[in-house]
What does this fold into?
Amino acid sequence: MESEQRLKRKRIYRPYSRAQFLSRRSLILCLSFFVFLMFLSSERFPIRTVSFHPVVSVPSLSILSKNSLQDSFHAKLRFPLSVEDRVLFPDHLLLLVSDKIDEAEKLDCVYHKVLNHKDVVRQRVLSVDEFDGFRSVVRCPLPPWNYSAAAGLMWRGHGVDYSLSLRSNRTVHSWDRLVYEAAFDGKTAVVFAKGLNLRPHKESDPNRFMCQFGLKNSDEEDEGFVVMTEAIVAAQEVVRCSLPSSIRNNRDLAQGIRVTVVLASRNDVEHVQMPSAVRFRNSRSYDHRRNRMRQKENIAVPSVAKLYNSKSYQTKRNDGKFELCACTMLWNQAPALREWIMYHTWLGVERWFIYDNNSDDGIQDVIEELDFQDYNVSRHTWPWIKTQEAGFSHCALRARNECKWVGFFDVDEFYYFPRHHRRGLPGQNLLRSLVANYSSSRTIAEIRTACHSFGPSGLSSPPLQGVTVGYTCRLQSPERHKSIVRPDLLNETLLNVVHHFQLKKGFRYLNVPESSIIINHYKYQVWETFRAKFFRRVATYVVDWQENQNQGSKDRAPGLGTEAIEPPNWRKQFCEVWDTGLRDFVLANLADPATGSLPWEKSLL
It folds into this structure.
């Protein structure tokens, strides 16, 4: 009887004991996990794993705050960045990275000593930008003396081994000789190259060149698959080649493919038929051996250029192309953008392409503000110094599918219609109406407008209401001109001299009379603004201000030396004619009747 009761008690209490055991085990596991998290967040025990760097994410409904966990672990558990390419410029080192970079302020450039890779130096990055929709560019300071330019990247305050960013590629390209951009255009690829030594403003013999398409760097021993095609045209820094048939029929095959220019030998061009299909490097065929022989005979220019089949940046009106767009290239001119864009939008410009040449003055914030106000502005990162002509060629390609007309002019240049102003006629959309009159022309593909150069006009500080109101004294005679072009009627070389383009055969330009339309070029502003030009000129074939060459050129300021030293009486120079026409035009049409303020002033409030 007693034994039966003991068995009964065991049957009754056994489930309770197992539940109690499971409860204790769960508690121990939870506490262990909590201790593990505390261990990870401790500064005394940072994780220094090289081969594996997980990212911890916590559901939003967790009892622990998602933000607090990210703050604690985000930095320590971050993947290293992969540097694809490096370009050495005279004043900085450019890294091309295959990742999108957030929190750039926490990123360091890392340099190792030439003869001792364990001796490293870290410096903060200069700037970071998205690039071509698929990559990022990181600008680093020049390496310290006796340190390699094969820099890596490291998140600040972390113990991650930066050598991971060096394992794939340690090449450093010189900017003197480099293929730096490439773009699709119909059945061709347009390739932009530095160091080909082609004649400025002239077409060159395309038989000297071929284009090479391949998955890896042109200077690597094993290049995967490679195919070469003939050049169709060449001029300045642009070479246009036919696309291989395999890519032409399916552009998705070319997504991220690297392209370069090959300097072809005469025998190769005349006697070897270019392949139209991809050749595999691991093939044992005769074609493979012949391809190897051609490669040895020809010289491929180093390349960081890749082709991407992306149209994400394109915007169109619902009823077709924009009538009038504008494109410019600039460096650190964010304060000038509001007035320039707002004024010319009032004149009829519908779409804006801003090619940013390494600005660090908060230009992205200004553009985002303007775009938020429906000014339809996009910024394109263009990190290549002294390549304005190539940048304009690239912009013409980009705008071709969006715009009937594209104006190429600077942010200190403003169109003005003196005849309309004198007659008191409405000024809104005048520029768009002008070009629309020639949109169906069978002969006119470019409209040229002369420029008047304005001086400081007696001012010592930047005018508060903008350049159009503040600067009112200019030189007597006009200097040069600027153009608005039909991008689908440009010569296939895309040859330009900044001020105008070469057109297709059978088309011509139109010079509009100065009495009808003129450009006010606020070229010589107060010294505080003007001296920034001494940093660098953006045009390829224009000498920098610091260089002692072409002192009498119209691209230079008369009487100004090669140093950024304010000349005597600068504020009174370049003043031969007092001209208040555009000032009066702006105040009459755009000033608030109640306050007298202008639209670009309101945006600063």
Remarks:
- The domain at 79-174 is CATH 2.60.40 (Immunoglobulin-like).
- The mean pLDDT is 80.
- The chain is about 25% helix and 25% strand.
